[in-house]
Design a protein that fits this description.
alpha/beta
Length: about 220
């Protein structure tokens, strides 16, 4: 599903340049649940942004579901994000003035799915994550764990091939983190490919494999 070969990325500010990724090789198979770990500055956030087509890379090759991601226009990258990828963030990124159902339905709005069908599918997904009775509640009326489950339902709305989760339990207590990881593992059990960036060893241990980054290179767990 995901293949990277020799991916490099350098950020330049004025006369200063910083090479964050120095030739990353890794592969994630369809249906895998993989953790990416690394200390601050190891390049894991940059790597996730490249996987999510939110940032480009300088050299190397990135194939997503067999398609080469080189030299995408911004429009094509946005199309592929909508078609292929679902995102889950540490800070949930829910829209505060929209209900849980409206937040979940947002990706379907951008896909021009009719309103009635959007509502049906958002309710179906909220039921899937155990929050159907919270469909009309605002994010401010929910706990952190409930907000993250809404965010997961939203990530699933467009029926992506891959879920990319950036510290999905980072803002949650340990009991709620376990609940969220149980849900992610359940979805993975249904065949969803998942990449989870985490700094928590307990969360990585819940995944099938851990890819460790150090100083812009894969230290272990690449399976290339």
């Amino acid at each position: 599903m995901i293949d990277l070969l020799g991916i490099t990325k350098t950020y330049t500010t004025g006369a200063q340049s910083l090479q964050v990724l120095k030739g990353v090789d890794l592969a994630v198979e369809t249906g895998e649940l993989v953790a990416i770990m690394g200390s601050s500055g190891s390049g894991k956030s940059t790597l996730l942004n490249i996987l999510g087509l939110l940032d480009g890379y300088d050299e190397g090759m990135y194939r997503l579901d067999g398609k080469n991601m080189a030299k995408l226009t911004e429009r094509r990258a946005a199309e592929l994000r909508r078609e292929m990828l679902g995102f889950v963030f540490q800070s949930f990124n829910l829209i505060g003035f929209k209900s849980a159902a409206e937040n979940v339905a947002l990706p379907l709005y951008y896909q021009k799915v009719p309103r009635k069908e959007r509502l049906r599918r958002s309710h179906e997904l909220l039921e899937r994550v155990g929050l159907l009775e919270w469909a009309d509640h605002l994010p401010s009326q929910m706990s952190g764990g409930q907000k993250q489950r809404v965010a997961i339902a939203r990530a699933l709305a467009a029926q992506p091939r891959v879920i990319l989760a950036d510290e999905p339990t980072g803002a949650l207590d340990s009991a709620t983190s376990e609940e969220v990881m149980s849900l992610l593992k359940e979805l993975n059990g249904d065949g969803m490919t998942m990449v989870v960036v985490t700094h928590e060893a307990e969360i990585a241990a819940e995944c099938q494999r851990t890819i460790r980054l150090r100083d812009g290179l894969v230290e272990s767990g690449a399976h290339v």
